[in-house]
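thread from #wetlab-drylab

HS: before we spend reagent money on co-crystallization trials with calcium ion, can we at least see a predicted complex? here's what I'd submit
DV: go for it
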Amino acid sequence: MQIVILAAGQGKRMRSSLPKVLQPLGDRPLIRHVLATAEALLADAGSAARPVLVYGHGGEQLQATLTGVDCHWAHQASQRGTGDAVAAALAHIQPAGRVLVLCGDVPLLRVETLRTLLASPPDALAILTAILDDPSGYGRILRDAHGAVHAIVEQRDASPAQQAVREINTGTLLIPAAHLAGWLGRLDADNAQGELYLTDIVAMAVADGVPVVGVPAAGEAEIMGINDRAQLAQCEREYQRRQAERLLLDGVALRDPARVDVRGEVTAGRDVEIDVNVILEGRVTLGDGVRIGAHCILRDAVIEAGVRIEPFSLIDSARVGPNAVVGPYARLRPGTELAADVHVGNFVEVKNSRLAAGAKANHLAYLGDADVGARVNVGAGTITCNYDGANKHRTVIGDDAFIGSNSSLVAPVTIGAGATIGAGSVISREAPPGGLTLTRAPQKTIPGWQRPLKNKGK
Ligand code: UD1
Ligand code: CA
């Protein structure tokens, strides 16, 4: 089996400068979904053939986005229709076996569905069809009195009677390769769109005595072609529905499966709970018993067992150790590593820092480029002054230190183990272990102080 993917169309109806097949669905461009399906099918068939990608519009953007993809690139110079697009791929096609034609704008087709198409008689031209309540826009499958397929007619060329047909062409065809070049050579553009329609080969196959079969797809959602942003949004919903279903079947409790978005890969342990409006991006690992509150965003994160992420927290490229508590309203930036039982509370930002077991920063703090020891308590309003305007410096805080509220730790600086920092201090030199260090203007009182009075002008 060989595979051709059609992706040369501009996608005018998207009204976008991005080529249609590069529009995102979940975490990847549309075309990546189709390529993944193609690769799975080829691997299935034990085929070493590489898929042929027909490109045209936005070719450079496409090639730049798909670096590392193992496929043949076939250029279709001008977009003269799907038949012309397949013709552009002919140079890479062996005239033996069958050629599966996939559309780059139909991203949700499942491998299992395509397997049913591949199970059709090996000498037949097989069409993946679907029966839709609203078939408008699609090519219609025309069957004779005995139910045999004899042609496909495009919406714009169809008579009112033909338009009433609800069985449609999904755009996915499996074509005997030996006939392909001959049929494509006989296409003409004598139709409503002035294009070379791949679908016209169906009538040619019938005329040549090649068996034609229509194989119905089970689901309506998976055959959806994307032509505009409304359809893209619909596809995204369907994609997310599948992602949520997978999480549920993996044992994750979703408070509302319609209100979680997965844009990447999630691995979850047992008894994980996810509240509404959570977005998971990249690679996210959730250990046993992790609970994620509403409105959190996690990207490339490892969250270990028993962790509670409270609502409205953002976690990006970070690791959270067992039983830690994060948020509400916490922000963990790249390079953050929290050990077991750490608490990072509301309006606390942590970047490129390690917090050892049991450390706490419960309110309103910034910890950047810091090593925070075990059981350290970071008071509200404390910040590391890690940036001098040119370079970043580290702050090292020893185990069991206590940092009084509203302190500024001017890096590079070290706070010794067990040290106490008085509230409101600006610490720019080493604070020795064990002692109390503080920088504070002495408090004074002016007795009987008279506040200024308002001028009573005319
Ligand atoms: C096509 C089918 C229609 C089917 C529908 C399913 C034809 C003539 N019509 O219609 O029967 O119901 O798909 O979604 O085949 N492309 C190229 N080069 C071109 C033209 C198109 O590469 O010159 C690519 C597009 O990028 C797209 C695919 O082929 O990925 C389908 O093209 P599109 O214009 O969207 O066809 P439809 O009108 O949707
Ligand atoms: Ca289409």
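DV: The two ends are 96 Å apart (CA to CA).
HS: ok that's useful, forwarding to the group
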